[in-house]
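Escalation from tier 1.

The customer reports that the assembly of three entities below gives different structure tokens on two consecutive runs. Tier 1 could not reproduce it. I'm attaching the input and our single run for tier 2 to review.
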Amino acid sequence: MKQNRLRLTVTTEGRGIYCISQKVCKWVSQQSIQSGLLTLFIPHTSASLLIQENADPDVLEDLNRFFNHLVIDGDPLFQHQSEGPDDMPAHIRSALTQTHLSIPVQENKPSLGIWQGIYLFEHRIHPHKRNIILHLLGE
Amino acid sequence: MKQNRLRLTVTTEGRGIYCISQKVCKWVSQQSIQSGLLTLFIPHTSASLLIQENADPDVLEDLNRFFNHLVIDGDPLFQHQSEGPDDMPAHIRSALTQTHLSIPVQENKPSLGIWQGIYLFEHRIHPHKRNIILHLLGE
Amino acid sequence: MKQNRLRLTVTTEGRGIYCISQKVCKWVSQQSIQSGLLTLFIPHTSASLLIQENADPDVLEDLNRFFNHLVIDGDPLFQHQSEGPDDMPAHIRSALTQTHLSIPVQENKPSLGIWQGIYLFEHRIHPHKRNIILHLLGE
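Tier 1 run:
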């Protein structure tokens, strides 16, 4: 039983959902750990992680649009406005999605369903550079 | 330290919340790993996982009813309508709940609270056959 | 590869968000496991876990206020009213946030971002005593 770790950097172009499946699966395929548990962790509070449908790009747009309606930018409900109208909503959208994902690994591949992709959800309007920590534990 | 893995299949009768605690706990009790970490992963994008109250069945109905109101079937907000009015809501409901659960294990039992059960949340209106991957790592 | 486990008890003063970062990081720093995977699990269905911004206390208040508006105490939509108007909302708020968190550990520290804290989210109006299970697996 052993473990490996990687810090992945993703550059976003502002609010939206970015596929990271290929980068993640490539790293897993290169490890000497064939089966085990993969954990993804995002050390940010205004971007999050998501497993979602990978077939129709409309799904990702609809998901983002749903969150835009659920958590309103600049809502007077929020006291925390100093970092911009999209900052407090970004924290709430992060709380409603995932800061980490755990995926079993077999034969050097995350056991994703055929319609599943791994995504970074950028919640801020402006582009950001985001880190994701990958941790693989197994044998 | 070792690991075991199982693919569990659950047949749903359409949208609703299905208890899988007994199946999961039975499998864990049969493993030679007595303490460690249990991960459940669902390789689908229109069904999800949930830990929820196991005492009053009204809780599960209320939870489903809340989601029916939060994410409206056939909402014109959604571009992705081709797979039916309940498909895009199913993806959003999955994003708002869990694709995976991690539960510490001790004495061959998941360390659930006495009021906690493990559930599959089927988000599609029609019945489906769903897989869940169980992964246990420990000693 | 080895594992350690702790049951942490937190006393809440009613609905709100309580920082547990220091207690968690202190325990991790004292373990002989320097790198690995930390799992936090809450064995309750009306309190949950959260990673959130640790800088401006307004963020935590706004988050709580958002949930107060999203899930209405005593909403006639809910059949489950017998345990008080805040009980069913507490279950839903738990479902929308996290029952468990997984965080990679390096150099005896959880790999949190500099703006991230670990929080217990108490969803009931009255004070409660809550348990959190910490599980650390690594080497």
